[in-house]
Amino acid sequence: MIIPLDKLIEFKGNRYKLTCAAIKRAIQINLTDDEELKKNNGKIVPTALKQILLKKVQYKLED
Q1: Mean pLDDT over all residues of the chain?
Q2: Buried b vs exposed e over 15-52: b needs ≥16 C-beta within 10 Å?
Q3: Residue span of the structural domain in which 47 resides
Q4: How many domains, in total, are found in the chain?
Q5: Which burial class, exposed, middle or buried, applies to 55 when counting CB atoms under 10 A from its CB (0-12, 13-18, 19+)?
Q6: What is the mean pLDDT of residues 12-24?
Q7: For residues 48 and 22, is the Cβ–Cβ distance under 8 A?
Q8: d(Cα 4, Cα 56) in Å, to the nearest integer?
Q9: Distance (Å, rounded) from C-alpha 61 to C-alpha 39?
């Protein structure tokens, strides 16, 4: 499974912000053709969530 479900369940932050960050990261992955995307069979959103939950990328949403 691509998404680390244990990390998703343990996530204590704002889920709305997590969702927004995942959407923005998914767009970035799609535009840059991230190398991890090939390993995950082209699944963009799960790849974005995985990168955020495993803290491979940091996010900060501005108002």
Answers
A1: 91
A2: eeebeebbeebbeebeeeebeebeeeeebbebbbbbbb
A3: 5-53
A4: 1
A5: exposed
A6: 94
A7: yes
A8: 13
A9: 28
